[in-house]
Amino acid sequence: QVQLVESGGGLVQSGGSLRLSCAASGFTFRDTIMSWHRQVPGKEREWVALITTAFTTLTKDSVKGRFTVDRDNDKNTLYLQMNSLKSDDTAVYYCAKGGTIPSALGQGIQVTVSS
After folding, report:
1. Which letter does DSSP use for residue 76 in this model?
2. 34: Cα within 13 Å, side-chain hemisphere
3. Among 22, 42, 56, 83, which residue has the least CB neighbours within 10 Å?
């Protein structure tokens, strides 16, 4: 079955950086568009970034230039490098199988940015 396990979250000061990782299994990772989403309590989940099988990336306007999505097909791992973090980036971040409308999500990992 599909498994997506996020790691690398935590507490960081405003302006700091974090790198999220997502270990994927149960499907052919290299043939799958992957993405990151996030959710703040009381708000809808939103798409943050995606990467295609050809390594083309798209990022949400609010994180463009600060967040970078990448993948390692040999390790079946998805990454999200987050720089210049702001308090508005505080959320639970989810790794996802698929693009803007994913077919599966990980359990999520908390990212908290303190001002």
Report:
1. T
2. 32
3. 42
